[in-house]
Design brief:
Length: 518
């Protein structure tokens, strides 16, 4: 059947599949340039993993609440910039500490917002590695300063790269040096203490879910420095406010978003992507198609049951990508409403617990904890706080269970997590007012992510960021955006991906301004 017989008459400049932060930044950037954009979201709210939901007076973040990108200076504050570009802004609360680590053998340290304090505190724990610590984090600042010196747009556009090189040649050359380097390569060259190297492993794992040997230095330079430069800032009203504000900006600039609109496939004509088909059979035509789904959900291949692009149209390069990358685990998530008395005085908003170094990459080994009500009291009823705990968990642990077995496993596994949390929250078990438990199956169902995965991680040791795919796909008219694209996971990273995708499309549509951003 010719699908184009059932299409709407409107031809959009771009149709974006999914309203995760990457998709919304792509859409808003294009709309701000005058493009006619429509976003199609299968769920009832925007944001994907960066969304929020309400239960009994609590506002829970779907995913992590340790947010980068809300700084006020430089070029790495991409969330601030993305919102401002469409006339929006988020009020935020500064977090005095990025993360408090509770590690094996009594190794406990809080990463202070003030860089000097952090280095002094870490050096006090490893005084014999004073020079190595200073040099390692100093190199991270070199990477960050290169990134912060240039507008962060598409690196697929030769004309744009030429402009950037002309504006900041030293920064470009400095950044190129680090593209093929992983964190572990540098850390082992400067540091010998095995416990300090383990700490750097967990410093990487807390946001990349990979140890230092498989974490690109470009990403680490951004994270390890921006937490002190722009700082960690929590949006008032919860993380979901970011997506809501982007939607408001999209609509204010003439774009549209449609909820409960599940895209079943990309429509092709003569090998070119020309639109999308909804589950209802309706076809929406567009000059450019953007997938904010994971690459496993976008392209056909092993394990992809209902991909947007069929096997005939899937480029060979995607098969190469599947050999290089695998899905990171999903998470077992506990959203808890607790009595305020359960939170000890002096507790930090974000915490990480690990009982044994051998368990760092194991099923439910690391526990991440956020208590966002320590920053924003409006998220919970008076006298209560939010504890959001999540631990890596693979889909294989949850598939094939009967409804009864599934419920029992949710209850048993959540009980074990709560028990472990009592290491830092001794009164937790007796203080719970509300408990919502999410599993990899929940993440797959509500977020539409392959295996509920956090995103792609290397399946073998790769040279830094060089093998990561960009927004172009090898199919004319089809682009990808989000954590399956350069530079990877995290809200600020996918915001970069959105900027890059919109710039690439804008270049082809002829709507990009000649002048570089200030």
């Amino acid at each position: 059947m010719n699908l184009l017989n059932k299409e709407e008459k409107t031809i959009w400049d771009a149709v974006v599949i999914g309203s995760g932060i990457g998709g919304l930044v792509t859409a808003t950037q294009l709309a701000a340039k005058g493009a006619k954009v429509i976003v199609l979201e299968k769920y009832i709210i925007p944001g994907g993993s960066g969304g929020s939901f309400q239960r009994n007076g609590y506002t829970f973040d779907v995913g992590a609440s340790m947010i980068f990108g809300f700084g006020e200076k430089g070029h790495t504050n991409l969330l601030t910039r993305a919102l401002a570009d469409v006339g929006q802004n988020c009020e935020t609360f500064p977090d005095p500490v990025q993360l408090a680590y509770h590690l094996p053998n009594g190794l406990n340290i809080a990463v202070d917002r003030n860089y000097t304090n952090f280095i002094d505190n870490l050096t006090a724990l490893f005084p014999h590695e004073k020079e190595g610590i200073k040099k390692f984090y100093g190199f991270c600042w070199q990477v960050f300063n290169c990134l912060d010196a240039m507008p962060l747009l598409s690196i697929e556009d030769p004309a744009y790269l030429a402009k950037v090189f002309f504006k900041a040649p030293l920064a470009c050359l400095g950044l190129a040096r680090w593209l093929p380097v992983n964190v572990g390569d540098l850390a082992r060259r400067l540091i010998k203490d095995p416990n300090l190297l383990k700490f750097i492993d967990i410093e990487c794992f807390c946001w990349s879910v990979m140890p230092a040997d498989r974490t690109p230095m470009i990403n680490a330079g951004m994270v390890f420095s921006d937490r002190h430069a722009g700082g960690i800032n929590y949006p008032k009203g919860g993380v979901g406010v970011i997506a809501q504000k982007l939607v408001q900006g999209l609509e204010a600039n003439g774009g549209e978003i449609h909820y409960k609109s599940r895209v079943s496939e990309v429509v092709f004509k003569e090998g070119k992507a020309v639109g999308v088909k909804l589950a209802t059979g309706k076809v929406i035509r567009a000059k450019k198609v953007v997938s904010n789904a994971t690459r496993w959900d976008t392209f056909s291949g092993e394990g992809s049951k209902q991909a947007l692009v069929n096997a005939t149209n899937t480029p060979k390069r995607e098969k190469v990508w599947r050999k290089r990358y695998k899905p990171a685990p999903s998470f077992l998530s506990l959203h808890l409403g607790v009595q305020s008395e359960a939170i000890p005085k002096g507790m930090h908003c974000h915490n990480l617990l690990l009982d044994s170094w051998d368990e760092m990459e194991s099923e439910q080994g690391v526990i991440f904890v956020s208590i966002p009500t320590l920053l924003d009291k409006s998220l919970a009823p008076k006298g209560y706080e939010i504890v959001h705990a999540f631990t890596p968990s693979s889909m294989s642990e949850w598939e094939g269970l009967s409804p009864q077995e599934y419920s029992l496993k949710k209850e048993e596994d959540s009980r074990k997590v709560i028990k472990r949390l009592e290491k830092i929250l001794p009164q937790l078990s007796n203080s719970i007012n509300l408990k919502e438990v999410g599993t990899p199956r929940s993440h797959r169902r509500f977020l539409g992510r392959y295996q509920g995965s956090y995103g792609p991680i290397p399946s073998l040791r790769l040279p830094g960021l060089l093998p990561m795919p960009f927004n172009s796909t090898g199919i004319e008219g089809l682009f990808c955006v989000g954590d399956s694209c350069f530079p990877g996971q995290g809200l600020n990273a996918v915001a970069f991906s959105g900027y890059a995708c919109a710039h690439r499309i804008g270049s082809q549509l002829g709507i990009n301004p000649w002048k570089l951003p200030d």
